[in-house]
Amino acid sequence: MPSCVLAYSGGLDTSVILGWLQDEGYDVHAVYVDLGQPCEDREAILNKAKTCGAKSARIVDVQEELCRDFAFPVLQWQAKYEAVYLLGTSIARPLISKACLQVAREVKADAYAHGATGKGNDQCRFQLAAEALDPAVKIIAPWRIEKFRQLFPGRSDMIAYCEQRNIPVKASISKPYSSDENCLHISYEAGKLEDLNVCGVDIVEFGMTTSPKNAPDAVETVTIAYESGVPVAVNGKRLSPLSIVKTLNHIGGRNGIGRIDMVEGRFVGMKSRGVYEAPGMTLLYESHRCLEQITIDRDLMHLRDRLAPEVAEMVYYGFWYCPKFDALLAFIREAQKPVTGEVKLNLYKGNVMIAGRESPRNLYDEAIATMEGGGSYNQTDAEGFLRIQGLPIRVQGRVNPRQY
Question: Do 28 and 157 sit in the same domain of this protein?
Answer without folding.
Answer: yes
